[in-house]
Amino acid sequence: MTHSQSTGAALLVINRKEVARALPMADCIAAVERAMRAYSRADANIPLRTVFALPGGRDFFGVMPGYLGDPRALGAKILTVYPENAQRGLSSHVGLVLLFDVAMGHPIAVMDAGAITAIRTAAATAVATRALARANATNLTILGTGEQAVTHLEAVSLVRQLRTVRIWGRSTDKARKFAREHASRLALPIEVRESADSAVEGADIVCTVTAAREPILRGAALRPGTHVNLVGSSRLGAREADDDVVTRSRFFVDSRMSAGAEAAELRHAQDAGLVTERHVLGEIGEVLNGNIAGRTGSDEITVYKSLGIAPQDLAAANAIYERASRENIGTRVPF
Predict the structure, then answer these.
(1) Domain range enclosing 237
(2) Are residues 160 and 274 in the same domain?
């Protein structure tokens, strides 16, 4: 991304609503797939993100910098993670994505990070689901009822022809509200289940998008052939799935480096002596590039552990910037 049209005299500011307008889910899926392919062929410079806990241990501050070669993008995401924000009607992820001109080094755009995170995380799940789920997978289960549940419903529906959708959350009232509000999006009824086990019974695709600290998904509840996207936990000490989910599966990640440092479900199984680091078969970008096999049989359980990495944010931000520039979205301010 050289953006030679940029002069450095103005900074493009793109708010939350404008991010959603400039980044349709289908476009984000394409951008994230391109980024994951580039990342796994080493066409990127992405250090491990810096995340630290704020006083009290529940809230976090993080910085995710990087350079991506395809598309060319340079920048960083700076954000806070406040899980209790959901109870206030706010996003749990709040912050900024900064883009810089690759050729000249000056900042060219600042965007709402919460909106980008919500869209690109679900887009990454869609990329993995398209690569790893059975071609005839039609039954989706979502564990969780927050913002990521909304975007995941949209994203997965774009890569598989869904026939049924089930939802489970710790609050049945929230799950019912989700079902009422979003069933019309797919012209499909969304069934609310009272337990996570009953929600995943018969599922072809499972997405966990919760803030759970202890497992809510049991491997024993999964039928052969299921594809699982583990999304909600992005740090050690908080895992959504038990050891059986890990050990029963062909296990893939977005980044080997990030998974080694932050994938709680994998680390727990390793610490228990149930698997080694070799249990990670590869990155989803390696599957997309044809370097390793993804699903090799219809009865296999596949897992994609999503931690979220800077190439996804950079690719999404690049797509937003290009559309915003074409369609006059956002506000240019002197800088």
Answers:
(1) 133-308
(2) yes
